[in-house]
Design a protein that fits this description.
CATH superfamily of the largest domain in chain A: P-loop containing nucleotide triphosphate hydrolases
Strand order of the largest sheet of chain B: 6-7-8-3-9-10-12-11
Number of domains of chain A: 2
Order of helices and strands of chain A: EEEHEEHEHHHEHEHEEHHHHEH
Oligomer: heterodimer
Distance between the termini of chain B: 33 Å
Structural class of chain A: alpha/beta
Radius of gyration of chain B: 21 Å
Structural class of chain B: alpha/beta
Shape of chain B: globular
Number of helices of chain B: 13
Shape of chain A: globular
Largest sheet of chain B: 8 strands, mixed
Number of strands of chain B: 12
Helix content of chain A: 25-40%
Strand order of the largest sheet of chain A: 6-7-8-3-9-10-11
Chain lengths: 353, 327
């Protein structure tokens, strides 16, 4: 395997809950992220999926050092960035940039597009000497498919898709190696989503970027990712290459999640099996003992309440080499096909029956 | 036909000019039928629904033409007091964002019960009992204890169930659900959609489902009406449209979504942006983005052509629908 450029292990983030005004005492913690391991190789896209509250955005924030982890390490090229400060941290941050979800609130309305995209150069002046910045910003606008003449416009003069392109241009300004994208297309209209996804795809090839792509939309994650991690209540419950996760899921949560995604094919609705989970995600202040998914799981047994399942290749698949042999944190892992297999011909493209 | 919208026009007068939000919409829904209205933001799908319900903000909104026939009666000719009798009792709406649609300072029991007090003249005690029944019906656990809780004490999925319960309270003939699951997570979305479909079947209601999600549509709809720039561009039974769209916009939408069951190459992207409603392009509104556009598309607005072979249920607003249909 290629040397990973980002290696996360045992990442934990607990937000303390306090009581009292003058004398604050901790009464509990929101366990937003509770032991996450990930690796990212050069040029690779790692997709992280999960429902709201599963901790995926907190992971993203810790990767770009916007949030300090409670425990664990984030190694960028072998160096633990959680222990860095000052100059050393600044130089690492240059290489890990972020694209945010909401292009309406993540751009300062009082700054011109040129200032927004050029702002990273104020912090890292070594990347672009002052006289060169305007030209660099115009190049970036061109790269993300916007007219370079728009450099003096303000964010409100752009549509949602165009704003997200501005956000991407800002992320690219320092020529980072890694881009952490937190739900980059979920605020956009369907017809515009495709444009932005294609742009991200193209930029990856052009600049040799590695992506951590966080989203709740499983179809988009499949489209863009090489590897996928499924998160539930602060932990990764299953991870593997995209075909392993989508076509051969072994964790019941992944199976339920996949079976719940509506597929745009009315023919599939009759013969598709739906797993409908009961109830809601438990509160992250009070995580169930043992396996955290057991309260909603149809397979749960006594063992699940007592023993925390480890994220590893399940014993029954350990000796096989098939696609089911990937990491899954379940005592009763079992392969199950929930997404209808791909049809060889795609007849709506050419419109003939 | 339970509800029929004919040639509806709605515009908004704003400081910057007149925004033409709805420009001649025709659609209908029968008892027991699910019609999905599909469109992007600004396509006029929600404004049409608000006009049907009679909850459009006027001003700045103005209905400038058309008819809305409900059981044969034109709602637009009724007085406000007469229309109020329809809302809730005959037709009800489920909104996208349950947290901001429910009153935060009233318990959910009071809000559900209010329907019975106002429309049926029940006592508060009887109304509360009915509220508990309704909460049971939408499968809220421990309904009896939770009837006194306030909206913020419920999760997103549970709040959406309360919205559904409220819409169903008086067993209306028509339900309009405006993006009912967009704010929910997929596993919860599946629960809520299944519940809605089941109750619709049970009560034989007509359902207008407004959404931008082609997946949700394929799962539950009988018919689809696709909207663009305030018009229906294609309307057809759900199976036909997914198999062979007869309008280039529909085709573009279907091709531009990544699919769970396919690992695609580059996605097809519809070029450009949806039009500004203050300045809709002449001719076919989709022409600047259309790969098939020719001169006639820039001058003549296409009427709704019957798609042949036809039983009168499939229409497309494209001059070149045959080409689109046959690739």
């Amino acid at each position: 395997m290629v040397e990973p450029i980002l290696e996360v292990s045992g990442l934990v983030k607990h937000f303390p809950l306090t009581q009292g005004i003058l004398f604050k005492k901790q009464v509990g913690a929101v366990k937003a992220v509770d032991g996450v391991d990930l690796t990212l190789s050069k040029g690779e896209t790692l997709g992280i999926v999960g429902e709201s509250g599963c901790g995926k955005s907190t992971v993203a924030k810790m990767l770009v050092n916007l949030e300090q982890p409670t425990a664990g390490s984030i190694k960028y090229r072998g160096e633990d960035i959680t222990k860095l400060s000052g100059k050393a941290l600044k130089s690492v941050r240059r290489n890990i940039q972020m694209v945010f979800q909401d292009p309406y609130t993540s751009l300062n309305p009082r700054m011109t597009v040129g200032d927004i995209i050029g702002e990273p150069y104020d912090i890292h002046p070594e990347v672009a000497p002052k006289g060169d910045r305007r030209r660099k910003v115009q190049e970036l606008l061109d790269v993300v498919g916007l007219n370079p003449e728009y450099i003096n416009r303000y964010p409100h003069q752009f549509s949602g898709g165009q704003r997200q392109r501005i956000g991407i241009a800002r992320g690219l300004a320092l020529r980072p190696e890694i881009i952490v994208a937190d739900e980059p297309v979920s605020a956009l209209d369907v017809s515009v989503q495709a444009q932005v996804i294609n742009l991200l795809d193209r930029l990856q090839g052009e600049f040799g970027l590695s992506y951590v792509f966080i989203a709740h939309d499983l179809s988009i994650v499949r489209h863009i990712s090489d590897r996928v991690g499924v998160m539930y209540l602060g932990r990764i419950v299953e991870t593997g290459r995209d075909a392993e996760i989508y076509d051969h899921p072994t964790h019941p949560y992944t199976q339920a999640l996949l079976s719940a995604v509506p597929v745009p094919d009315p023919e599939a609705r009759e013969h598709r099996e739906r797993i409908i989970l009961f109830g809601d995600v438990p509160s992250p202040t009070n995580i169930p003992s043992g396996c955290r998914f057991r309260t909603r799981c149809w397979k749960a047994q006594e063992r699940c309440a007592l023993e925390v399942p480890l994220l590893a290749v399940p014993a029954e698949f350990r000796l096989t080499t098939g696609p089911a042999a990937h990491d899954s944190a379940c005592h009763f892992a079992e392969e199950k096909q929930v997404v209808p297999p791909e049809e060889p011909t795609d007849d709506h493209v050419n419109g003939v029956e | 036909m339970l509800l029929e919208v004919r040639d509806l026009h709605v515009e908004f007068r704003t400081r910057d000019g007149v925004a033409k939000a709805v420009n001649g919409v025709d659609y209908g829904v029968d008892e027991g039928e699910t019609l999905a209205v599909l469109g992007e933001s600004g396509s006029g799908k929600s404004v049409t629904a608000q006009a049907i319900m009679g909850i459009l903000d006027m001003p700045p909104g103005r209905i400038t033409g058309g008819e809305i026939l409900f059981k044969g009666q034109d709602l637009l000719r009724l007085k406000e007091e007469e229309r109020r009798k329809f809302r809730g009792a005959e037709m009800a709406m489920i909104f996208q964002d349950a947290l901001s649609s429910l009153n935060p300072v009233l318990s959910v029991g009071d809000q559900l019960g209010e329907m019975f007090v106002v429309h049926r003249g029940m006592s508060r005690k009887d109304a509360r009992a009915r509220a508990v029944e309704l909460m049971d019906r939408v499968r809220i656990p421990a309904a009896k204890e939770r009837v006194r809780d306030y909206p913020h004490q419920f999760s997103g999925g549970m709040r959406q169930r309360i919205m559904i319960a409220m819409a169903l309270a008086l067993e209306p003939a028509l339900i309009i659900a405006d993006e009912p699951t967009t704010a929910l997570d997929v596993t919860v979305q599946a629960q809520v959609m299944a519940l809605l479909a089941e109750l619709r079947r049970e009560l034989n209601m007509g359902l207008i489902l407004i959404t931008h999600d082609l997946g949700v549509v394929a799962d539950v709809a009988d018919r689809i009406a696709v909207m663009y720039a305030g018009r229906i561009v294609e309307s057809a039974p759900v199976h036909d449209i997914y198999k062979a769209p007869a309008h280039p916009y529909t085709r573009g939408l279907l091709d531009s979504i990544p699919r769970l069951d396919q690992k695609g190459q580059e996605l097809y992207a519809i070029k450009g942006l949806p039009p500004n409603l203050m300045n809709i392009p002449p001719g076919c509104a989709f022409n600047p983005r259309c790969p098939m556009a020719r001169d006639v598309c820039r001058t003549d607005a296409p009427p709704l052509y019957d798609v042949i072979p036809s039983d009168g249920t499939r229409v497309s607003a494209c001059h070149f629908w045959t080409e689109c249909l046959h690739g």
